[in-house]
Specification:
It contains eleven helices and 20 strands. The chain is of the alpha/beta class.
Length: about 425
């Protein structure tokens, strides 16, 4: 797998991926109960799928298929399964993924090249502020990748700012991996406890689970808040359990780099038709390459992104993905206006007196979407804060949801739960 294909001309990348695609299709036609059934039902001859454009002849797979026919995606005997992983359930009920020894090697390679993209090198010391248990893939992937890279790993886990700072003081990592909003929590803890965090050993943060950037790749409010407090290098990443693949930024911060040996990417619109052209938004559809246990073909991720194909200043010529704009399953129709939750988050993040929040989406008596924003205020909260916040929503997205003021500690308990890898900002109570 140690290829330099992501520095090759686009035409060479395409031909390389088409060869990998043919291998993947042959494997699925021999080993996958789900895809063998699909090929038979749709009279698909995989030998005739030779070009990227030919992929469009194959129906899309979605999360519902994984939930309904989970065991039919397994391509190996049960005794070959080494590790069982569960998705986070962002778009519905969690799904179990079975990984073989070969899949774990692929996972390690994926993170090795992704960390390398962020400038992480052999001999670096990396503190993982993310769980390696609870059936999640991420923490295990980071550990395997850093081990393969030759970096030192400190498995602290998530939360517990006191333990994080004690570990930084004792072992002196130069890099941390965590959800970016948690960085603000450990900064706050450091300020309250006299820790000179600006002069600590940490020089770089590899961020997971949340956007750091706007669509033009400038830092968003969360990214700017971190940089204003702590002048560390910030690297954004995008990944999912289903893909078992990571898109990580390089030092130029212009999107997550695609590693063509690991995955084929397409964008489609709401009707499943291809979306082409740099900067045009569509739902990311992926075909995994080199996966042995549960490979996926034309899988709809539910994530809305755009692609950028111009060469990066780092020298890579492979495609880059934009930050996630939203999730298809989270589309909200509020009082005649269509929007995605990040539009609500943006207003709340840019309101100085809002300390924390959670957005609850439901259905009203008419069957239409309803939105309740529960906010914790920074003291002293103005008497007209609710009216002001609604005015901010109207100015930005033309409509205002219902707003309820709650004690910040109540909201924080919702944001940070034991069973979630990243802050819970959205609760969708609608029946799917």
């Amino acid at each position: 797998m140690g290829t330099l294909i992501d520095y090759s001309p686009q035409e060479e990348i395409t031909r390389f991926q088409e060869k990998k695609l043919q291998e993947a299709l042959q494997y699925l036609s021999l080993r996958s109960p789900f895809y063998r059934r699909m090929f038979r039902q749709h009279a698909i001859d995989v030998a005739k799928i030779r070009r990227m454009e030919d992929l469009r002849q194959i129906p899309l797979t979605d999360k519902g298929d994984l939930q309904r026919y989970n065991s039919d995606f397994l391509c190996v005997p049960p005794e070959k399964v080494i590790d069982y992983i569960t998705t986070s359930g962002t778009l519905g009920d969690p799904v179990t993924f079975a990984m073989t020894d070969k899949d774990l090697d692929r996972l390690a390679y994926n993170e090795k090249v992704s960390f390398s993209c962020t400038g992480t090198q052999p001999g670096d010391v990396v503190q993982l502020m993310t769980t390696i248990d609870k059936r999640f893939m991420a923490g295990l992937a980071y550990f395997l990748g850093l081990r393969a890279l030759g970096a030192g790993v400190i498995r602290v886990g998530n939360g517990i700012p006191e333990l994080q700072w004690d570990t930084i003081r004792r072992i002196k990592p130069n890099t941390i991996v965590c959800v970016p909003s948690f960085i603000l929590h450990i900064i706050k803890y450091a300020e309250e406890n006299g820790i000179d965090y600006r002069n600590s050993s940490v020089k770089k943060v590899v961020c997971i689970g949340e956007n750091l950037r706007e669509q033009d790749f400038s830092l968003n409010l969360l990214g700017r808040r971190i940089k204003e407090k702590w002048d560390v290098a910030l690297f954004s990443t995008y990944a999912s359990t289903e893909m078992a693949t990571t898109f990580a930024e390089c030092e130029h911060g212009c999107g997550g780099h695609h590693h063509p040996e690991l995955i084929i990417c397409e964008l489609v619109n709401e009707n499943g038709a291809p979306v082409e052209g740099d900067g045009n938004v569509g739902e990311l559809v992926v075909t995994t390459l080199g996966v042995e246990g549960m490979p996926l073909l034309r899988f709809k991720t539910g994530d809305l992104v755009s692609m950028h194909t111009s060469p990066c200043r780092c020298g890579r010529t492979s495609m880059r993905l934009s930050p996630v704009l939203g999730r298809t399953n989270h589309l909200i129709k509020l009082k005649g206006t269509t929007l995605y939750p990040p539009a609500l988050f943006d207003v709340l993040d840019n309101t100085p007196y809002v300390e924390c929040y959670v957005v609850e989406v439901g259905s009203n008596d008419s069957g239409n979407d309803s939105v309740l924003v529960r906010v914790g205020m920074r003291p002293p909260a103005a008497d007209n804060a609710v009216k002001d916040l609604k005015d901010r929503f109207r100015a930005k997205i033309r409509v205002a949801p219902e707003v309820e003021v709650c004690p910040p500690e109540v909201i924080r308990k919702i944001n940070f739960t034991d069973m979630s890898r990243k802050p819970v900002k959205l609760i969708d109570r609608r029946k799917k």
